[in-house]
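=== RUN LOG ===
request id: a7f3
mode: sequence -> structure
chains: 1
length: 302
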Amino acid sequence: MKWTKEEENILKECYKLSNGVEKAYKIFNTRSKETVRQKAYKMGIKNMNFYKNENFFEIPNITNSSVAGMIASDGHLNYRKNRYQVDIYQKTADEEILNQIKVVTYSNYNIYRKIEKGGRIIGKNKKPIIKDSYGSILYFCKAEKWCQDLNKNWNIPIGHKSYTLEGPKNLNDLDNKLAYICGIISGDGSIGISKNKFGGILHISIWGTFSLLQWCKNTFSEYLKRELKMDLYKEEESKSCYCLKINSFNAIQLFEKMRSFNCIKLKRKWDNPKILDLIENKKKSMKYQKRIERFLVAQSSN
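=== RESULT ===
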C-alpha cells in the first residue's frame, strides 16, 4: 500500500513526540510495525525523543542485577562512532523478556527482529543442525552512563567479552549477586531434569569463562554456607567456554532462592511445571527434610 503525502506528514509529526514510535504504530495500525519503521528510515526521520532511566544501573539492586546478568550473557556494551550502546539479544520466541526490560528501565526503545540464515545448532546427539534462527534485539543508544555503571558495578567490559568476562568485583550484597546469576542463567544457562531411578534430579548448568563461573561457584558457596566441590569442565571445541553444573539438593536450594526474587527472569526456565512438580515431590522425602534442617541450622548460625 502506497504512502500518501498526508500520511508521511503525520508520521513526521508522530516522531517528534516523546512516545512517537508507539503513537505511529497506533495511527497506522493497518500496517505492520516493521513497515512503519522502514518508512521512517527511508524518509530519514529519526526519533530524537527516545528515553530510558539513565540512572537505572547506578546503584545495584535485585532488579537491575538480573538485567545486568542478561546483558552479561546475551548482550554487549559497545562504543562505536563516538557513541555508547547497550544491546540485548533473545530468541524471538522469548521476546517478552525484552519487553519486560523496557518496562523496568522506563524506556521506549525499539525491539528489532532479524533472521540468521543457516545457523549452526547443536542437537541432542551433539551433531550440528543447520537451520534458520529468529532473533530479537533491543538496542539502547546514547548509553554512556549505562556502560560506565555496568562496568563499575558488575565488571562487564565495554567491547568484546566472550573471552574476558569476569565476576563482579564491587558487588557485595549476596541477594544482588544471586540475582545477577539469575539473569545469567536466563541467558547462558539451563535448568532441567536428569533422569534416574528415583524420579529425576534437578540440575542447573551455566556456561561462561572460567573466571566468571568460579565467581558463581563462590557465590553459591556463600549462600549455602559451605564450600561446594563442583568441577568446571571445558566445553568441547571451545577455547574459552566452561560449564558449571549444580545438582540435586544444592540445585533445589539455589533455584528456589533465585526464583523468589521479584526480578527479570525467563519464564520458560523458571516457571517450568515439570521442574516445579519435581521440587515439590523431592520436598516430601525424609532425606530432603533432614538436609533442609541442616541447611537452616547453617543459615541461622551465620
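=== NOTES ===
The beta strands are 75-80, 83-91, 111-122, 128-141, 189-194, 201-208, 232-234, 242-247.
The longest strand covers residues 128-141.
=== END ===
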